[in-house]
Amino acid sequence: MPWILLSIAGALEVVWAFSMKQSQGFTRLWPSLITLIAMLASFGLLAAAMRSLPLGTAYAVWTGIGALGAFVVGIAFLGESANATRLLAAALILGGIMLMKASS
Predict the structure, then answer these.
(1) How far is residue 52's CA from residue 34's CA, in Å, rounded to a whole number?
(2) What dihedral do alpha carbons 8, 20, 22, 60 form, nearest 10°?
(3) Contact criterion met (CB below 8 Å) for 18 and 77
(4) What is the pLDDT of residue 104?
């Protein structure tokens, strides 16, 4: 169960990062509200997962999911570049997440 909570928390991190970008510096109401709600939910689920998972593992996986997810959303929806160096960096993050999960 803690891994499921952590995965949802990571997905919500992607939601709040994207909606924060859409809020244009918190000048647009709905994206700003979505950002704040997703942040609270993400932190709450991370805290719940940390009851059972080690701090370093939980935090690294949470930030890794958020970073990788934001990277994919940026390419898919915001027209950000997907050059070889950025793709290699994303692969390294994914590898790190997988190693953290395997080590727990």
Answers:
(1) 28
(2) -50
(3) yes
(4) 73
Tokens of 77: 């929806």
> Model confidence over 60-101: pLDDT tens digits?
999 999 999 999 999 999 999 999 999 999 999 999 888 988
What pLDDT shows up at residue 101? 82
Is 28 within 8 Å of 71 (Cβ atoms)?
no
How far is the C-alpha of 99 from the C-alpha of 12, rounded, in Å? Answer: 22
Report whether 48 contacts 74 (CB < 8 A): no
pLDDT of residue 100: 83
Q: Are 71 and 85 in contact (CB under 8 A)?
A: no
Tokens of 68: 């990788």
- Please state, in angstroms and rounded to a whole number, the distance separating the CA atoms of residues 32 and 13: 14
Alpha helices in 23-83 (DSSP H): 29-49, 55-78
